[in-house]
Write a structure and sequence with these properties.
Helix content is 42%, strand content 19%. The strands form two sheets. Strands 1, 4, 5, 6, 9, 10, 11, 12, 13, 14 and 15 form an eleven-stranded mixed β-sheet that branches.
Length: 426
């Protein structure tokens, strides 16, 4: 039997639901569902967690329940085959030959974040730091989408060290497929030291380390992917990483994957013709654009929002633009054909809709915009209207801002929908 069937068999033998098993082994319920359906293969560390929760050995879990054989020869052959398969599984964890399939795919940097425990303390001053916290905009975004029930794949890299294992454990427990995250022996996991100031500004010291060494799958490995999300910070971080993202984008876009883009611009890096050319390439393929106000003006070169939005929609591929404005909410723009435009396919009307932010006692706004992106895409993937998806984004961003740390907000599908139904967190 396959590992997926064996997990299901032993879970039912133990009288557990998928939710029960997920709780016992510290994984997301969707992760167990994906393992049992065969959509994902568990890594050895997950096999051990599941086996421990079921009070069996990892070998038992892989080999499965006993099988009735009609003669001794077939029994010996069957056991040999199953043991050989287990040895292969145990000793050669690889993605070679596997076809990557996902609701949402992101490629980019994975970090740990170490933060000042209070505002207005310079990084060069002796004081208290808190952390490590799992971080990196791509990781924050995809983790939120996974917690909201999406089948997610993150392509990235970490060092083979304690920080790297810490981040992998967190992502996997939240339901992210981490098979395409490389563990690098020669580099340490990327790290960011962060301090905050009362005026809302932040200052970082980065050690990127292994974070820039993500390797994209070969085109032949890319199967059906509904959405690929691209972060501008990843495009600006390293030419090698940017090239891998662009190559993956081109392959998936041709296959029908929707491309979403958060410019996430670092102004000091958005200067060279090379970077601007990369951004232009992504914009030409973008179906869903998720910028902030300053980013929108910067990438379009326009002096006001209306002109910038109009310019963006000159790209025939663009379907949705969500303009993020922090605690002031967001504005949703969509293409829609009016009666007047039905006679002419090249005339389209934009319909802006204001989406209010949910008011919370903010603890830490780090990562709220990335959670916003992940929740919006999760809503679209789950068949919600763009308006409902935008409200899911507002709820996820609010939950994230209530907790200290970039991925520490208590985001789940039930809570997000309850906030929308109640019109707030009360």
């Amino acid at each position: 039997m396959s590992i997926s069937k064996n997990i299901r068999f032993f879970r039912k033998e133990a009288g557990l639901t998928q939710k029960d098993l997920a709780g016992k082994c510290g994984l997301a319920e969707i992760t167990i569902r994906q393992y049992e359906s065969g959509k994902r293969e568990p890594r050895s560390i997950q096999i051990k967690k599941i086996a421990d929760a079921l009070k069996i050995s990892a070998a038992d879990l892989y080999l499965g329940q006993s099988i009735e054989y009609t003669d001794l020869a077939s029994a010996v052959t069957g056991c040999r085959n199953r043991l050989s398969a287990y040895a292969d599984f145990k000793n050669t964890p690889t993605t070679d030959g596997q076809i990557l399939q996902a609701d949402l795919l992101i490629m980019g940097e994975i970090l740990v974040e170490i933060m000042r425990d209070r505002e207005d303390v310079p990084l060069g001053q002796t004081g208290i730091f808190k952390g490590p916290y799992p971080s990196g905009a791509p990781a924050i975004c995809i983790d939120a989408a996974a917690r909201l029930g999406c089948n997610t794949v993150l392509i990235g890299s970490v060092g083979r060290d304690d920080f790297g294992q810490f981040v992998l454990n967190r992502l996997e427990s939240d339901g992210v497929d981490c098979r395409y995250i490389r563990q690098i022996d020669q580099s340490s996991t990327g790290c960011a030291f962060v301090t905050y100031f009362k005026d809302g500004s932040r200052k970082f010291i980065f050690h990127m380390g292994a974070a820039l060494q993500a390797a994209p799958p070969a085109p032949a490995q890319l199967g059906r992917v509904k959405y690929m999300h691209i972060m501008g910070c990843s495009l600006m971080a390293d030419p090698y990483l940017a090239r891998g993202i662009l190559d993956t984008m081109h392959t998936l876009s041709k296959a029908g994957t929707k491309i979403s883009f958060d410019p996430n611009i670092r102004k000091e890096l958005y200067q060279t013709p090379e970077i601007k050319e990369i951004f232009s390439d992504v914009m030409d393929h973008t179906n869903i654009l998720l910028p902030g106000k300053e980013e929108l003006l910067l990438i379009t070169g326009e002096g006001d929002i209306d002109s910038a939005v109009t310019k963006c929609f000159e790209n025939p591929a663009l379907e949705i633009l969500v303009l993020k404005d922090g605690s002031r909410g967001s504005r949703l723009y969509r293409r829609s054909s009016s009666e007047a435009s039905e006679a002419s396919s090249d005339r389209l009307q934009m319909e802006p809709r204001k989406i209010d932010a949910y008011k919370v006692n903010q603890e830490d706004a780090t990562g709220a915009g990335d959670c916003f992106d992940g929740a919006f895409l999760a809503g679209l993937i789950q068949g919600e209207t763009p308006e409902t998806a935008a409200r899911m984004s507002a709820a996820a961003g609010a939950l994230n801002a209530m907790a200290f740390g970039p991925m520490e907000g208590k985001i789940d599908l039930e809570t997000v929908h309850r906030i929308i139904e109640n019109g707030g967190l009360s």
